[in-house]
Amino acid sequence: MTDTATAGRALPHPAREQIRLEFVLHALSDPMRLQIVRELAARDAELTCSQFDLPVTKSTSTHHFRVLRESGVIRQVYRGTAKMNGLRRDDLDGLFPGLLDSLLAAADRQSGPLRPGG
């Protein structure tokens, strides 16, 4: 497929100046979405949705990727038939310096089992 063939499949993303802190924080407050972002940050590469081993259904996984995209945390683009996911690190670091690194470091420190209230 050529770029023009995939242009009709372009997914909507907020422009950099439209990314809001409250939407980013909401997107990253979910453990599955945080896991996706942690993996993208660790790999520092675009990954297909199928490269993530999430313990949820395909429809739930699709929802998580959509929330991350619509909040401006990730960028999704089609490359042929594959939907590629990339972390919008430059945009997030430019808008909220140090936020992503702080959140990722905190997530790494707490990477054990999630325990409500503890």
From TrEMBL:
Residue span(s) of domain HTH arsR-type: 13-107
Keyword terms of this UniProt record: DNA-binding, Transcription, Transcription regulation
InterPro entries xref list: ArsR-like_HTH, HTH_ArsR_DNA-bd_dom, HTH_MetalResp_TranReg, WH-like_DNA-bd_sf, WH_DNA-bd_sf
Signal peptide per UniProt: none
GO MF assignments: DNA binding; DNA-binding transcription factor activity
Segments passing through the bilayer: none
Xref: PROSITE patterns: HTH_ARSR_2
Protein name: Helix-turn-helix transcriptional regulator
Species this chain originates from: Streptomyces argyrophylli
Phylogenetic placement of the source organism: Bacteria, Bacillati, Actinomycetota, Actinomycetes, Kitasatosporales
